Amino acid sequence: MRPESFIEGVNDSKKVSEKKRDKLYEQITDEAIAWSIGIVDEKEIDRINILNATKKALTIAIESLKIKPEIILVDALKDINTLGIPYTSIIKGDEKIYSISAASILAKVTRDRIMRKYGEIYPEYGFDGHKGYGTAKHIQVIKECGICDIHRRSFVKNFI
């Protein structure tokens, strides 16, 4: 974000309504000097685990930035490949640091949009509602319908 930038309502994505996150996403992407999203698919997450997949997604995002930052602020991750850029890990950074909050909104909106598209492909699973999280309704549908191609095997193994 530009040093003088301040978008009202930017907060930890978990504390912002879906409708507000969508509006903030547009404002953040318009206002940001540079931004990028790293995506790791379900097969890779199963292969390397969710923590390592999160770290890999961060590295992918850094590689894709058009402008490289002087420092990277991250929410609670350690031992990450920032391609030589110094970083600071901040516990609960998405609650405390404006730029981390903004990044959490971009990540959450991107994931929600992906899950809504999956909801069109697999309507019986209700991805547009629960966005793939382990809600009681999602778990029940998996028990009734089985798993589909996008389910992480490491996610569903505890209840199928």
Keywords:
Nucleotidyltransferase, domain 5, globular, 160 residues, 51% helix, mainly alpha, 8 helices
Gyration radius from CA atoms, angstroms: 17 Å
What is the count of helical runs?
A: 8
What general outline do the C-alpha atoms trace?
Answer: globular
What's the CATH superfamily of the domain at 13-122, by name? Ribonuclease H-like superfamily/Ribonuclease H
β-strand number: 2
Strand order of the largest sheet: 1-2
End-to-end CA span: 43 Å
CATH class of the domain at 13-122: Alpha Beta
Structural class: mainly alpha
Low-pLDDT ranges? none
Let me know the largest β-sheet: 2 strands, parallel
Plain-language structure description:
With 160 residues, this protein is mainly α. It has a domain at 13-122: Nucleotidyltransferase, domain 5. It contains eight helices and two strands. It has helices at 18-31, 42-48, 50-64, 93-96, 98-121, 127-130, 136-145, 153-156; strands spanning 72-75, 87-90. The chain has a two-stranded parallel ribbon. Helix 2 (42-48) packs across helix 3 (50-64). The protein is globular and about 50 Å long. The protein starts with 17 loop residues before the first helix and ends with a helix. The mean pLDDT is 94.
Topology:
Blueprint: H1 18-31, H2 42-48, H3 50-64, E1 72-75, E2 87-90, H4 93-96, H5 98-121, H6 127-130, H7 136-145, H8 153-156
Parallel strand pairs: 1-2
Give the structure's gist in a few sentences:
The chain is mainly alpha-helical and about 160 residues long. It has eight helices and two strands. α1 packs across α5 (about 100-120) and α2 (about 40-50) crosses α3.
